[in-house]
Design a protein that fits this description.
With 120 residues, the chain is an all-beta fold. It has no helices and eleven strands. A hairpin with a 4-residue loop joins strand 9 and strand 10.
C-alpha cells in the first residue's frame, strides 16, 4: 500500500522551530514533485512550499526566509524546516507528493496531516 506518513508536528512557542517529515512508503520508485500545504480553522488550504525532482523550491510569501523545504531521495522523504514560528503559522500541515510508482505511472498522494500549534 502506497502512502505518505507525516511526523514532527506539535506545540511550540512563538520564535521556536519544528521540522516536519513526510515519508513515502510502499511500491514506489521515487518522489517527483512534493509540497507542504496548511489549513487553519475556517480558512482554505494553502500551499506553503514545494520542491521539484531537481530540488528547485518555491515558497509562499508568508514563510519566505523562515521555512525550508528539502528532500532526501534515498529515503523517499521530504522535510519542512520551520524556524521563527509565529502564531499565525498554526494549522494542520499536509504533505502532497506525486510519486513514480513501480507499476510504471505517476499518482498523487496526500498525507494524513499533522497539527502545528504556535503559542504567543
Amino acid at each position: 500500500q502506497v502512502q505518505l506518513v507525516e511526523s514532527g508536528g506539535g506545540l511550540v512557542q512563538a520564535g521556536g522551530s519544528l521540522r516536519l517529515s513526510c515519508a513515502a512508503s510502499g511500491s514506489i520508485f521515487s518522489i517527483n514533485v512534493a509540497g507542504w500545504y496548511r489549513q487553519a480553522p475556517g480558512k482554505q488550504r494553502e500551499l506553503v512550499a514545494s520542491i521539484t525532482s531537481s530540488s528547485s523550491t518555491n515558497y509562499a510569501d508568508s514563510v519566505k526566509g523562515r521555512f525550508t523545504i528539502s528532500r532526501d531521495n534515498a529515503k523517499n522523504t521530504v522535510y519542512l524546516q520551520m524556524n521563527s514560528l509565529k502564531p499565525e503559522d498554526t494549522a494542520v500541515y499536509y504533505c502532497h507528493a506525486r510519486l513514480f510508482l513501480l507499476r510504471g505511472y505517476e499518482h498523487d498522494y496526500w498525507g494524513q496531516g499533522t497539527q502545528v500549534t504556535v503559542s504567543s
